Amino acid sequence: MPTPRAWQKMLSGRRLDLLDPTPVDIEIEDIAHGLSFVARWNGQTLGDFAYSVAEHSLLVERLYSRLNPRAPAKWRLAALLHDAPEYVIGDMISPVKNAVGPGYDALDKRLAAAVHIRFGLPATIPVPVKKQIKKADRISAWMEATEIAGFTVAEADRFFGKPDPEVIRDLSIALRPPTDTRAAYTARHHALLAEMG
């Protein structure tokens, strides 16, 4: 019996092996394109455009930077790329991830390591940095839940924790066409790489 295909051809022409991803097969244009078309909340959000993982990632990077104003560019890049594997595996809501089990987590970790190495980050992000990125991620989830996903503030507080009002001051959820989000994600990635030198 033939082995099932476990690779995906990207628009860049790269062929990404999901079981053994290599950094040379990772391109930021593929990531930005894929994430700008992947909907958060399984698409169950208000508005004329889906709220994409790319848009979410841009917000998480901004929140991480507010929480950690002295963070070097490499950790801000890690925040931007925190959901990068979802460009090929999609965004599963937490209840689905829990139902799928450890296989999803292993796949996510393999892809994340390849992405990190491709862009000059360590394969595994240090735990303190990862915790701060997760904190920014939860604040973003609270904002999304209350602004576009139909949660009451009390529900969002219970599931995601109540954010510090200063951290989210002047920020709001942006809904825009995927092409605009793709361009913004790619531009932010390039700016952070340039800052890293």
Automatic annotation (TrEMBL):
Residues 49-151 form the HD/PDEase domain. Coiled coil: none annotated. It holds the Pfam family HD. Transmembrane segments: none annotated. SMART domains: HDc. It comes from the Bacteria. This is HD/PDEase domain-containing protein. It comes from Roseovarius tolerans.
